[in-house]
């Protein structure tokens, strides 16, 4: 097997339960995954309110789940499967669709590659939405772009926020040591909250060293945030998938044409 990462240490910042597949891919390509969850996910305090909303979704034409977390923190609170005449279900990303399938929920619309809000908005069903009611299932404080675009197209949009993002309590000793010694070859980040938490977790002493490490992200939006924070070299994966992240890490490490410093 081709192992182009040649023992390089790659920092993975996803919550630990979501990092296993990417860690496996990095290891299969010869890298050494270093786990530093820069984000913790917890349910919102009022789960009864979430369950109440889920019990009365028949008034909506669409439910849009923005992430696997949106599914995993909502569906266990729903008393029954979503069946006709329930709303049509849209999923942003393959992991989200897989989570819905796990709960027996049929996915009517999957955002095409690169599996983002923008690609979902480009699909034919999301064009003419006059008099349509849409419920977006997400975490607290998510980006407003999707709702704003749907509203401009005539939809009435509501949110169901089912989880919250937190700064985790984690041991950063290994990551700090690798940073100090210049032994981190790359960092992967998949959401803005984790990107912002990373500097907080590692501390201001390591900030300049952190910003010098090549960073791999899943969208141009994250790349812009990273560059505004101070990261010097940012690569955008072609899709928001583990395989694309691993591919972008390899391209970054081997000098492939993966850098998009837009």
What is the tally of beta strands? 11
Q: Which fold does the CATH topology of the largest domain refer to?
A: Rossmann fold
Give the overall shape.
Answer: elongated
**What structural class results from the helix and strand content?**
alpha/beta
Largest sheet: 6 strands, mixed
What is the topology, as strand order, of the major beta sheet?
A: 3-8-7-4-5-6
Question: What is the count of helical runs?
Answer: 11
CATH architecture of the largest domain: 3-Layer(aba) Sandwich
Helix content: 25-40%
Pick out the low-confidence regions: 257-262
Oligomeric category: single chain
Average pLDDT score: 92
Distance between the termini: 33 Å
Order of helices and strands: EHEEHEHEHEHEHEHEHHEHEH
Estimate nothing, just give the exact number of structural domains.
2
Beta-strand residue fraction: 15-25%
Report on this structure.
- By secondary structure, this protein is of the alpha/beta class.
- It has 2 domains: 9-39 and 168-254, 3-Layer(aba) Sandwich (Rossmann fold); 42-165, Rossmann fold.
- Helix content is 35%, strand content 19%.
- It has helices at 20-28, 47-54, 68-72, 94-102, 117-121, 145-152, 173-180, 192-202, 207-212, 220-229, 242-254; strands at 9-12, 32-35, 40-43, 62-65, 88-91, 109-110, 133-139, 156-166, 184-188, 215-217, 234-236.
- The protein has a 6-stranded mixed beta sheet. The protein has a 5-stranded parallel beta sheet with strand order 2-1-9-10-11, with helices on both faces.
- Helix 1 packs parallel to helix 11 (242-254).
- The longest helix has 13 residues, at 242-254.
- The protein is elongated and about 60 Å long.
- 42% of the residues are buried.
- The model is unreliable at 257-262 (pLDDT under 50).
């Amino acid at each position: 097997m081709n192992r182009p990462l040649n023992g390089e240490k790659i920092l993975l910042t996803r919550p630990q339960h979501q990092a296993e597949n990417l860690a496996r891919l990095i290891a299969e390509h010869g890298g050494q995954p270093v786990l530093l969850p820069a984000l913790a996910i917890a349910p919102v305090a009022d789960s009864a309110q979430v369950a109440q909303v889920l019990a009365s979704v028949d008034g909506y034409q669409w439910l849009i789940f923005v992430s696997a977390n949106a599914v995993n923190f909502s569906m266990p609170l729903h008393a029954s499967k979503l069946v006709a005449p329930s709303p049509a279900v849209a999923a942003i990303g393959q992991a989200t669709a897989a989570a819905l399938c796990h709960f027996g929920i049929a996915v009517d619309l999957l955002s095409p590659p690169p599996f983002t809000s923008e690609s979902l908005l480009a699909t034919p069903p999301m064009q003419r939405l006059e008099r349509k009611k849409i419920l977006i299932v997400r975490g607290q404080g998510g980006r407003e772009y999707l709702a704003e675009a749907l509203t401009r197209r005539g939809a009435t949009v509501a949110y169901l926020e089912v989880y919250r993002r937190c700064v985790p309590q984690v041991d950063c000793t290994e990551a700090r040591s690798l940073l100090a010694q210049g032994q981190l070859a790359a960092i992967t980040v998949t959401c803005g909250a984790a990107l912002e938490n990373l500097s907080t977790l590692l501390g201001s002493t390591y900030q300049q060293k952190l910003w010098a490490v090549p960073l791999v992200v899943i969208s141009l939006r994250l790349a812009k945030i990273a560059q505004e924070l101070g990261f010097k070299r940012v690569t955008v994966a072609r899709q928001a998938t583990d395989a694309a992240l691993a591919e972008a890490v390899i391209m970054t490490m081997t000098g492939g044409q993966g850098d998009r410093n837009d």
